Amino acid sequence: MTFAGTAADDSKLTSVQVSFANTTTGESLGANGVWGHDSVPGWFRISPDQWAGAPSYSWSWTPPANLTPGSYAFAVKAVDELGLETLPARQGRLTVNA
């Protein structure tokens, strides 16, 4: 399974980040990209580290492990050059039942 979309801003974006967790087993994606029970949940950057920034960014992300049966929470947000983040009410969020 791959998640994909486009983030857009009226100025330059500096990063696009995802959050992903199995709400059934407690596994989560850490800010360092490590998946597992011992990972501290965080926002993982999926845009390139040396990205110069642009008003929009087409992104895609594939979970680091095969999805096992359970419920998953996924969210994506963008950060602009002022450090402003996508508001929670406007973040792409969904629940996946595998």
Question: Can you describe this structure in just a few lines?
Answer:
With 98 residues, this protein is an all-beta fold. The protein is built from no helices and eight strands.
Secondary-structure blueprint of this entry?
Elements: E1 3-8, E2 13-22, E3 28-29, E4 35-36, E5 44-45, E6 56-61, E7 71-80, E8 92-97
Antiparallel strand pairs: 1-6, 2-5, 2-7, 3-4, 7-8
Number of strands: 8
What kind of sheet is the major sheet? Answer: 4 strands, antiparallel
**How would you sum up the global shape?**
elongated
Across the major sheet, the strand order is 5-2-7-8
Strand content: 35-45%
In helices, the fraction of residues equals under 10%
Q: List SSEs in N-to-C order.
A: EEEEEEEE
> What structural class do helix, strand and pairing data support?
mainly beta
Number of helices: 0
Please mark out the parts with pLDDT under 50 across 5 or more consecutive residues, or reply none: none
N- and C-termini, Cα separation: 10 Å
Task: Output mean pLDDT.
Answer: 88
How much is the radius of gyration in Å?
14 Å
